[in-house]
């Protein structure tokens, strides 16, 4: 690991540079800088999950319903409320899609 300020190599896991005193970027410390990016990217999974749920009502509910739940789970990892709603909506759409499919299949 090298100091981001003075560029000298650091020995061990010191929090501060032994040459210039600058704080060292530890691998675990970088996680704090990403929540805003992660929250932003949840939108794509929410939209994808909603599209899969809508398709699941009409076509191949087991496939698109599961896809919607999986996308909802990815959204959940970034935004718990939106992800939970996505997984519940996808699950309902999958069940409704299966029931509709069986009903259509039974009357034809
Ligand atoms: Zn330094």
Can you give keywords for this protein?
3 helices, binds zinc ion, mainly alpha, 108 residues, 65% helix, 2 domains
Describe it.
This protein has 108 residues and is mainly alpha-helical. The chain has 3 helices and no strands. α1 runs parallel beside α3 and α2 packs antiparallel against α3. About 6% of the residues have low confidence. The structure holds zinc ion. The site of zinc ion has 8 residues, from loops.
Query: Mean of the pLDDT scores?
Result: 84
What's the number of domains?
2
Number of helices: 3
SSE order? HHH
Instruction: Give start-end ranges of low-pLDDT stretches.
Output: 29-35
Beta percentage is: under 5%
Radius of gyration from CA coordinates = 23 Å
Reported for the largest beta sheet, the result is: none
Q: Give the helix level as a range of percent.
A: 55-70%
- Which hetero ligands occur in this complex? zinc ion
Number of strands: 0
Instruction: Characterize the overall form.
Output: rod-shaped
- In terms of structural class, how would the helical and strand content be classed? mainly alpha
State the end-to-end CA separation.
Answer: 69 Å
Brief rundown of the structure:
The chain is mainly α and 108 residues long. The chain is 65% helix and 0% strand.
């Amino acid at each position: 690991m090298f100091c981001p300020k003075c560029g000298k190599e650091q020995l061990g896991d010191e929090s501060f540079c032994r040459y210039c005193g600058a704080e060292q970027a530890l691998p675990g410390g970088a996680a704090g800088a990403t929540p805003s990016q992660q929250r932003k990217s949840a939108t794509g999974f929410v939209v994808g999950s909603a599209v899969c749920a809508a398709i699941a009502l009409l076509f191949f509910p087991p496939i698109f319903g599961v896809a919607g739940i999986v996308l909802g789970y990815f959204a959940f990892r970034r935004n718990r409320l939106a992800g939970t709603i996505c997984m519940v909506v996808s699950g309902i759409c999958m069940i409704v899609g299966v029931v509709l499919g069986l009903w259509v299949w039974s009357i034809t």
